[in-house]
Amino acid sequence: MTTITKERIELFIKNPLENGLTRGEQMDLARIALASLEAEPIGYMNRFTGRVFSLDEQPGADTDTDVYEPVYAAPPAPVVPDGYALVPVEPTDEMIAAAMNCEDVMFNSDESFCVQFGNIYEAMLAAPPQQ
Fold first, then answer.
1. Residue closest to 130 by CA, chosen among 31, 27, 8
2. Confidence at residue 78, expressed as pLDDT on a 0 to 100 scale
3. Which domain of life is it from (predicted)?
4. Is the same domain home to 99 and 126?
């Protein structure tokens, strides 16, 4: 199962020193890279007509790079295990409002609550279950 997200990789690329990858994320990224390097084309598209051929239909298409371009299958979508949900990296206003409306939440001001909630949410996202 892939746990690293596109957004997480983009953050790392923008600023690797501040957005280092965990060991698990490094392994996920290595698996993704290896899978893409080992991917086999599902066909070859003629650059001029846009038509896609298999090697059975058009022998030599894999070597005639002036005319044919390899076509790959789309990667599978990431799997979200049962009991999990995709959540935004930053809490939405609706999420903050829902947290503020909990009966067991005490706070002195809306501003301090939002800062504290943001810090708690960030810490929760940084500590996903290791599988």
1. 27
2. 66
3. Bacteria
4. yes
Residue 1 pLDDT level (bands cut at 50, 70, 90): low
pLDDT for the residue 5: 83
Q: What does 11-31 look like in DSSP terms, one character per residue?
A: HHHH-TTTSPPPHHHHHHHHH
pLDDT of residue 75: 67
Q: Is residue 73 part of a domain?
A: yes
DSSP-based three-state secondary structure for 53: strand
2/28 Cα distance (integer angstroms): 6
Dihedral sign computed on CA atoms, order 93, 129, 38, 56 = negative
Gap between the Cα atoms of 27 and 86, Å rounded: 21
Q: Which helix (H) or strand (E) holds 124?
A: helix 110-126
